[in-house]
Amino acid sequence: MTRTKSEALKAAITSEYWLILALSGVFFTYFALDGGGTGMFIKLSFFLLIVNVLFGDYKIKKIPMFYFVVLAICAYLILGSLMVAPAQSHVRWIKNLFRMLIIIFSIHCLYQKDINYRISMLFLGILCLSVCWQFAALYFFKMPYGTFSNPHYLSSFAVLTLPVIVASIFFLTGRYKLILIPIFFMDVGLLLQAGSRPAIIGIAFGTLFIIIFLTRGRYKWIGMTLIFLFFGILCITGYANIAPRIEELIVNLTKEERVQFWTQAWNTLTDNSLMDWIFGHGIGWFPVHFTQDSTSQVFPFVFPHLYFLEILYLNGILGLVLIFGGLALLFVSAVNDSKQTHNKETLILLKSLIVAFLSWLIHCGLTVPFYSKPSLYPLAFILGLMLILEKIPGFRSDTN
Hints:
Helix 2 (16-31) crosses helix 5 (91-111) and helix 4 packs antiparallel against helix 5 (91-111). The protein has helices at residues 3-13, 16-31, 38-55, 65-84, 91-111, 117-139, 151-171, 175-194, 197-214, 218-237, 242-251, 257-269, 274-279, 307-340, 344-367, 373-389; strands at 144-147, 288-292, 297-302. By secondary structure, it is mainly α. It is globular. The protein has a two-stranded antiparallel sheet with strand order 2-3. Strand 2 (288-292) and strand 3 (297-302) form a beta hairpin. It has 16 helices and 3 strands.
Protein backbone atom coordinates (compact mmCIF):
# COMPACT_ATOMS: atom_id res chain seq x y z
CA MET A 1 0.00 0.00 0.00
CA THR A 2 1.44 3.38 -0.97
CA ARG A 3 1.90 6.15 1.58
CA THR A 4 -0.87 8.22 0.01
CA LYS A 5 -3.36 5.36 0.24
CA SER A 6 -2.25 4.61 3.79
CA GLU A 7 -2.85 8.21 4.86
CA ALA A 8 -6.22 8.25 3.11
CA LEU A 9 -7.28 5.07 4.93
CA LYS A 10 -6.06 6.50 8.23
CA ALA A 11 -8.03 9.70 7.65
CA ALA A 12 -11.13 7.70 6.77
CA ILE A 13 -11.13 5.44 9.83
CA THR A 14 -10.33 8.32 12.23
CA SER A 15 -12.81 10.75 10.70
CA GLU A 16 -14.84 12.81 13.15
CA TYR A 17 -18.03 11.77 11.38
CA TRP A 18 -17.82 8.26 12.83
CA LEU A 19 -17.69 9.66 16.36
CA ILE A 20 -20.54 12.03 15.54
CA LEU A 21 -22.60 9.06 14.35
CA ALA A 22 -21.79 7.08 17.49
CA LEU A 23 -22.52 9.87 20.01
CA SER A 24 -25.66 10.96 18.19
CA GLY A 25 -26.76 7.34 18.21
CA VAL A 26 -26.17 7.07 21.97
CA PHE A 27 -28.20 10.21 22.66
CA PHE A 28 -31.09 9.46 20.31
CA THR A 29 -31.49 5.77 21.12
CA TYR A 30 -31.46 6.38 24.85
CA PHE A 31 -33.46 9.61 25.10
CA ALA A 32 -35.84 9.04 22.19
CA LEU A 33 -36.09 5.24 21.95
CA ASP A 34 -35.81 4.49 25.69
CA GLY A 35 -32.49 2.69 25.38
CA GLY A 36 -33.09 0.54 22.32
CA GLY A 37 -29.67 0.16 20.65
CA THR A 38 -27.80 2.42 23.08
CA GLY A 39 -25.36 -0.32 24.08
CA MET A 40 -24.39 -0.90 20.45
CA PHE A 41 -23.56 2.79 19.89
CA ILE A 42 -21.54 2.97 23.13
CA LYS A 43 -19.51 -0.05 22.00
CA LEU A 44 -18.99 1.68 18.66
CA SER A 45 -17.81 4.82 20.51
CA PHE A 46 -15.31 2.73 22.48
CA PHE A 47 -14.01 1.08 19.31
CA LEU A 48 -13.59 4.49 17.66
CA LEU A 49 -11.73 5.79 20.72
CA ILE A 50 -9.24 2.94 20.42
CA VAL A 51 -8.86 3.57 16.70
CA ASN A 52 -8.18 7.28 17.28
CA VAL A 53 -5.63 6.52 20.00
CA LEU A 54 -3.78 3.97 17.85
CA PHE A 55 -4.02 5.57 14.41
CA GLY A 56 -5.28 9.12 14.91
CA ASP A 57 -4.21 12.28 16.70
CA TYR A 58 -5.92 11.50 20.01
CA LYS A 59 -2.83 10.97 22.11
CA ILE A 60 -3.11 9.90 25.74
CA LYS A 61 -0.34 12.25 26.89
CA LYS A 62 -2.34 15.23 25.55
CA ILE A 63 -5.49 14.41 27.51
CA PRO A 64 -5.97 16.90 30.41
CA MET A 65 -5.20 15.52 33.86
CA PHE A 66 -8.74 15.93 35.20
CA TYR A 67 -9.97 13.24 32.80
CA PHE A 68 -7.58 10.82 34.45
CA VAL A 69 -8.83 11.97 37.86
CA VAL A 70 -12.35 11.04 36.77
CA LEU A 71 -11.00 7.72 35.48
CA ALA A 72 -9.17 7.09 38.76
CA ILE A 73 -12.28 7.82 40.84
CA CYS A 74 -14.34 5.38 38.78
CA ALA A 75 -11.57 2.77 38.98
CA TYR A 76 -11.48 3.10 42.77
CA LEU A 77 -15.28 2.75 43.01
CA ILE A 78 -15.25 -0.39 40.87
CA LEU A 79 -12.22 -2.07 42.45
CA GLY A 80 -13.33 -1.12 45.94
CA SER A 81 -16.75 -2.63 45.30
CA LEU A 82 -15.26 -5.87 43.99
CA MET A 83 -13.01 -6.10 47.04
CA VAL A 84 -15.62 -5.49 49.75
CA ALA A 85 -18.49 -7.33 48.04
CA PRO A 86 -17.22 -9.52 45.18
CA ALA A 87 -20.40 -11.62 45.02
CA GLN A 88 -22.95 -8.86 45.67
CA SER A 89 -21.57 -6.17 43.33
CA HIS A 90 -24.15 -5.14 40.75
CA VAL A 91 -22.43 -5.99 37.44
CA ARG A 92 -24.81 -3.96 35.26
CA TRP A 93 -24.31 -0.86 37.40
CA ILE A 94 -20.55 -1.30 37.23
CA LYS A 95 -20.85 -1.45 33.44
CA ASN A 96 -22.75 1.84 33.57
CA LEU A 97 -19.63 3.50 35.01
CA PHE A 98 -17.57 2.20 32.08
CA ARG A 99 -20.22 3.48 29.64
CA MET A 100 -20.19 6.91 31.27
CA LEU A 101 -16.42 7.09 30.86
CA ILE A 102 -16.66 6.07 27.20
CA ILE A 103 -19.14 8.89 26.51
CA ILE A 104 -17.00 11.47 28.36
CA PHE A 105 -13.78 10.52 26.56
CA SER A 106 -15.57 10.27 23.20
CA ILE A 107 -16.84 13.83 23.57
CA HIS A 108 -13.31 14.99 24.37
CA CYS A 109 -11.86 13.06 21.44
CA LEU A 110 -14.37 14.71 19.12
CA TYR A 111 -13.53 18.11 20.62
CA GLN A 112 -9.88 17.60 19.57
CA LYS A 113 -10.91 17.38 15.94
CA ASP A 114 -11.79 20.27 13.65
CA ILE A 115 -15.50 20.62 14.45
CA ASN A 116 -17.22 23.07 12.15
CA TYR A 117 -20.51 24.94 12.53
CA ARG A 118 -22.52 22.40 10.55
CA ILE A 119 -21.43 19.56 12.79
CA SER A 120 -22.47 21.51 15.90
CA MET A 121 -25.86 22.15 14.30
CA LEU A 122 -26.18 18.43 13.60
CA PHE A 123 -25.93 17.67 17.32
CA LEU A 124 -28.50 20.35 18.08
CA GLY A 125 -30.72 18.84 15.39
CA ILE A 126 -30.52 15.39 17.05
CA LEU A 127 -31.52 16.99 20.35
CA CYS A 128 -34.47 18.80 18.76
CA LEU A 129 -35.55 15.66 16.93
CA SER A 130 -35.56 13.79 20.25
CA VAL A 131 -37.81 16.47 21.78
CA CYS A 132 -40.21 16.26 18.82
CA TRP A 133 -40.18 12.47 19.06
CA GLN A 134 -41.15 12.52 22.74
CA PHE A 135 -43.72 15.26 22.15
CA ALA A 136 -45.38 13.19 19.41
CA ALA A 137 -45.35 10.08 21.60
CA LEU A 138 -46.97 12.00 24.47
CA TYR A 139 -49.55 14.11 22.67
CA PHE A 140 -50.33 12.25 19.44
CA PHE A 141 -49.81 8.62 20.39
CA LYS A 142 -51.14 9.19 23.93
CA MET A 143 -48.20 7.44 25.60
CA PRO A 144 -48.37 8.73 29.20
CA TYR A 145 -44.59 9.18 29.63
CA GLY A 146 -43.47 9.50 26.03
CA THR A 147 -41.42 6.49 25.00
CA PHE A 148 -40.29 5.99 28.62
CA SER A 149 -41.84 3.72 31.22
CA ASN A 150 -41.53 6.19 34.08
CA PRO A 151 -42.41 9.91 34.40
CA HIS A 152 -39.07 10.64 36.05
CA TYR A 153 -37.20 9.39 32.98
CA LEU A 154 -39.13 11.77 30.75
CA SER A 155 -38.48 14.58 33.24
CA SER A 156 -34.77 13.73 33.24
CA PHE A 157 -34.72 14.13 29.46
CA ALA A 158 -36.52 17.48 29.69
CA VAL A 159 -34.24 19.00 32.34
CA LEU A 160 -31.18 17.87 30.36
CA THR A 161 -32.32 19.36 27.05
CA LEU A 162 -34.14 22.53 28.15
CA PRO A 163 -31.00 24.48 29.23
CA VAL A 164 -29.23 23.61 25.96
CA ILE A 165 -32.22 24.73 23.89
CA VAL A 166 -32.44 28.02 25.81
CA ALA A 167 -28.70 28.59 25.33
CA SER A 168 -29.03 27.90 21.61
CA ILE A 169 -31.89 30.39 21.30
CA PHE A 170 -29.63 33.06 22.79
CA PHE A 171 -26.67 32.66 20.45
CA LEU A 172 -28.37 31.53 17.24
CA THR A 173 -30.03 33.96 14.88
CA GLY A 174 -32.50 34.05 12.04
CA ARG A 175 -34.54 31.01 11.07
CA TYR A 176 -32.79 28.76 13.60
CA LYS A 177 -34.11 30.85 16.48
CA LEU A 178 -37.63 30.65 15.03
CA ILE A 179 -37.35 26.86 14.87
CA LEU A 180 -36.01 26.54 18.42
CA ILE A 181 -38.72 28.62 20.10
CA PRO A 182 -41.54 26.08 19.44
CA ILE A 183 -39.12 23.26 20.38
CA PHE A 184 -38.59 25.05 23.70
CA PHE A 185 -42.32 25.15 24.41
CA MET A 186 -42.63 21.47 23.45
CA ASP A 187 -39.90 20.62 25.96
CA VAL A 188 -41.56 22.68 28.68
CA GLY A 189 -44.79 20.82 27.91
CA LEU A 190 -42.98 17.48 28.35
CA LEU A 191 -41.61 18.59 31.72
CA LEU A 192 -44.96 19.80 33.03
CA GLN A 193 -46.96 16.85 31.73
CA ALA A 194 -44.50 14.39 33.27
CA GLY A 195 -45.32 16.12 36.55
CA SER A 196 -42.12 15.23 38.41
CA ARG A 197 -41.87 17.68 41.30
CA PRO A 198 -38.12 17.06 41.88
CA ALA A 199 -37.49 17.86 38.20
CA ILE A 200 -39.47 21.11 38.31
CA ILE A 201 -37.86 22.13 41.60
CA GLY A 202 -34.44 21.20 40.23
CA ILE A 203 -34.62 23.25 37.05
CA ALA A 204 -36.24 26.16 38.93
CA PHE A 205 -33.41 26.09 41.48
CA GLY A 206 -30.74 25.89 38.75
CA THR A 207 -32.28 28.78 36.84
CA LEU A 208 -32.61 30.94 39.96
CA PHE A 209 -28.98 30.19 40.85
CA ILE A 210 -27.84 31.51 37.47
CA ILE A 211 -30.10 34.56 37.63
CA ILE A 212 -29.19 35.52 41.20
CA PHE A 213 -25.44 34.81 41.26
CA LEU A 214 -24.26 34.88 37.63
CA THR A 215 -26.46 37.51 35.98
CA ARG A 216 -26.10 41.26 36.30
CA GLY A 217 -28.06 44.41 35.61
CA ARG A 218 -31.52 44.46 34.15
CA TYR A 219 -31.24 40.86 32.90
CA LYS A 220 -31.31 39.67 36.52
CA TRP A 221 -34.60 41.45 37.19
CA ILE A 222 -36.07 40.41 33.87
CA GLY A 223 -35.16 36.80 34.62
CA MET A 224 -36.61 36.93 38.13
CA THR A 225 -39.81 38.48 36.80
CA LEU A 226 -40.20 35.79 34.14
CA ILE A 227 -39.66 32.99 36.68
CA PHE A 228 -42.28 34.32 39.08
CA LEU A 229 -44.63 35.10 36.20
CA PHE A 230 -44.30 31.53 34.93
CA PHE A 231 -45.14 30.00 38.31
CA GLY A 232 -47.89 32.57 38.78
CA ILE A 233 -49.53 31.42 35.57
CA LEU A 234 -49.24 27.78 36.72
CA CYS A 235 -50.96 28.70 39.99
CA ILE A 236 -53.77 30.63 38.30
CA THR A 237 -54.46 28.14 35.51
CA GLY A 238 -53.77 24.96 37.47
CA TYR A 239 -52.05 23.59 34.34
CA ALA A 240 -51.05 19.92 34.70
CA ASN A 241 -51.98 20.20 38.40
CA ILE A 242 -48.40 21.33 39.11
CA ALA A 243 -49.06 24.17 41.58
CA PRO A 244 -51.43 22.15 43.85
CA ARG A 245 -48.96 19.25 43.94
CA ILE A 246 -46.04 21.50 44.91
CA GLU A 247 -48.22 23.16 47.55
CA GLU A 248 -49.15 19.71 48.86
CA LEU A 249 -45.45 18.78 49.02
CA ILE A 250 -44.64 21.87 51.10
CA VAL A 251 -47.57 21.38 53.49
CA ASN A 252 -46.97 17.66 54.01
CA LEU A 253 -43.18 17.68 53.79
CA THR A 254 -42.61 15.75 57.01
CA LYS A 255 -45.03 13.04 55.84
CA GLU A 256 -43.47 12.77 52.37
CA GLU A 257 -42.39 9.23 51.49
CA ARG A 258 -38.83 10.29 50.70
CA VAL A 259 -38.36 11.74 54.19
CA GLN A 260 -39.37 8.38 55.64
CA PHE A 261 -37.03 6.62 53.20
CA TRP A 262 -34.17 8.79 54.50
CA THR A 263 -35.01 7.96 58.12
CA GLN A 264 -35.04 4.23 57.38
CA ALA A 265 -31.82 4.53 55.37
CA TRP A 266 -30.04 6.34 58.20
CA ASN A 267 -31.23 3.73 60.69
CA THR A 268 -29.65 1.08 58.46
CA LEU A 269 -26.41 3.09 58.26
CA THR A 270 -26.12 3.24 62.05
CA ASP A 271 -25.56 -0.54 62.03
CA ASN A 272 -22.37 -0.10 59.96
CA SER A 273 -19.08 -1.41 61.21
CA LEU A 274 -16.00 0.84 61.05
CA MET A 275 -14.93 -0.78 57.77
CA ASP A 276 -18.44 -0.29 56.36
CA TRP A 277 -18.30 3.41 57.22
CA ILE A 278 -14.94 3.78 55.48
CA PHE A 279 -15.29 1.50 52.43
CA GLY A 280 -19.04 0.85 52.16
CA HIS A 281 -20.90 -2.27 51.09
CA GLY A 282 -20.05 -2.23 47.37
CA ILE A 283 -21.95 -1.06 44.29
CA GLY A 284 -25.42 -2.56 44.42
CA TRP A 285 -28.86 -2.01 45.90
CA PHE A 286 -29.35 -0.20 49.18
CA PRO A 287 -32.61 -1.88 50.28
CA VAL A 288 -34.77 0.34 52.46
CA HIS A 289 -37.75 -1.33 54.12
CA PHE A 290 -40.67 1.06 54.16
CA THR A 291 -44.28 0.59 55.25
CA GLN A 292 -46.86 3.02 53.92
CA ASP A 293 -49.17 3.46 56.89
CA SER A 294 -52.23 4.42 54.87
CA THR A 295 -52.36 1.13 52.97
CA SER A 296 -50.19 -1.13 55.16
CA GLN A 297 -48.35 -2.09 51.99
CA VAL A 298 -44.75 -3.17 52.42
CA PHE A 299 -42.11 -2.22 49.84
CA PRO A 300 -39.17 -4.54 50.61
CA PHE A 301 -36.80 -3.28 47.91
CA VAL A 302 -36.64 0.51 47.86
CA PHE A 303 -33.54 2.67 47.46
CA PRO A 304 -33.18 5.72 49.75
CA HIS A 305 -33.97 8.38 47.09
CA LEU A 306 -31.00 10.51 48.17
CA TYR A 307 -27.56 10.26 46.60
CA PHE A 308 -25.76 11.28 49.82
CA LEU A 309 -27.15 8.40 51.87
CA GLU A 310 -26.93 5.92 49.00
CA ILE A 311 -23.29 6.60 48.18
CA LEU A 312 -22.38 6.66 51.89
CA TYR A 313 -23.83 3.14 52.23
CA LEU A 314 -22.44 1.74 48.97
CA ASN A 315 -18.99 3.36 48.86
CA GLY A 316 -18.39 4.59 52.39
CA ILE A 317 -16.90 7.90 53.44
CA LEU A 318 -14.01 7.55 50.98
CA GLY A 319 -16.31 7.08 48.01
CA LEU A 320 -18.56 9.90 49.19
CA VAL A 321 -15.62 12.31 49.41
CA LEU A 322 -14.26 11.29 46.01
CA ILE A 323 -17.60 11.56 44.17
CA PHE A 324 -18.96 14.72 45.77
CA GLY A 325 -15.51 16.28 46.02
CA GLY A 326 -14.95 15.79 42.30
CA LEU A 327 -18.40 17.10 41.39
CA ALA A 328 -17.97 20.08 43.73
CA LEU A 329 -14.59 20.95 42.17
CA LEU A 330 -16.10 20.80 38.71
CA PHE A 331 -19.10 22.91 39.72
CA VAL A 332 -17.02 25.60 41.44
CA SER A 333 -14.69 25.71 38.43
CA ALA A 334 -17.66 26.15 36.08
CA VAL A 335 -19.02 29.00 38.20
CA ASN A 336 -15.61 30.72 38.30
CA ASP A 337 -15.10 30.27 34.56
CA SER A 338 -18.52 31.75 33.83
CA LYS A 339 -17.51 34.86 35.79
CA GLN A 340 -14.21 35.24 33.94
CA THR A 341 -14.91 34.27 30.33
CA HIS A 342 -15.43 37.02 27.76
CA ASN A 343 -16.67 34.73 25.00
CA LYS A 344 -20.45 35.10 24.76
CA GLU A 345 -21.17 31.64 23.36
CA THR A 346 -18.94 29.91 25.93
CA LEU A 347 -20.56 31.91 28.73
CA ILE A 348 -24.09 30.99 27.64
CA LEU A 349 -23.21 27.31 27.23
CA LEU A 350 -21.46 27.20 30.62
CA LYS A 351 -24.49 28.72 32.33
CA SER A 352 -26.80 26.24 30.61
CA LEU A 353 -24.61 23.34 31.77
CA ILE A 354 -24.64 24.66 35.35
CA VAL A 355 -28.45 24.66 35.22
CA ALA A 356 -28.45 21.14 33.74
CA PHE A 357 -26.01 19.92 36.42
CA LEU A 358 -28.00 21.35 39.34
CA SER A 359 -31.23 20.03 37.82
CA TRP A 360 -29.67 16.59 37.44
CA LEU A 361 -28.31 16.62 41.00
CA ILE A 362 -31.68 17.51 42.54
CA HIS A 363 -33.97 15.55 40.24
CA CYS A 364 -31.99 12.34 39.76
CA GLY A 365 -30.63 12.58 43.30
CA LEU A 366 -34.18 12.27 44.62
CA THR A 367 -35.68 9.82 42.13
CA VAL A 368 -33.23 7.20 40.76
CA PRO A 369 -30.27 5.13 42.07
CA PHE A 370 -26.90 6.80 41.50
CA TYR A 371 -25.38 3.98 39.42
CA SER A 372 -28.43 3.43 37.22
CA LYS A 373 -28.59 4.42 33.54
CA PRO A 374 -31.12 7.25 34.13
CA SER A 375 -28.54 8.79 36.47
CA LEU A 376 -25.18 8.17 34.79
CA TYR A 377 -26.13 8.66 31.13
CA PRO A 378 -27.34 12.27 31.58
CA LEU A 379 -24.35 12.93 33.86
CA ALA A 380 -22.01 11.62 31.14
CA PHE A 381 -23.21 14.22 28.61
CA ILE A 382 -23.16 17.03 31.19
CA LEU A 383 -19.63 16.19 32.38
CA GLY A 384 -18.42 15.56 28.84
CA LEU A 385 -19.34 19.11 27.84
CA MET A 386 -18.35 20.80 31.11
CA LEU A 387 -14.87 19.31 31.08
CA ILE A 388 -14.00 20.67 27.64
CA LEU A 389 -15.14 24.17 28.58
CA GLU A 390 -13.44 24.51 31.95
CA LYS A 391 -9.98 25.47 33.10
CA ILE A 392 -9.37 23.69 36.40
CA PRO A 393 -6.12 24.93 38.02
CA GLY A 394 -3.57 22.13 38.14
CA PHE A 395 -5.70 19.74 36.10
CA ARG A 396 -6.06 21.19 32.62
CA SER A 397 -3.71 22.06 29.82
CA ASP A 398 -4.46 23.66 26.50
CA THR A 399 -4.94 20.85 24.01
CA ASN A 400 -6.70 22.52 21.16
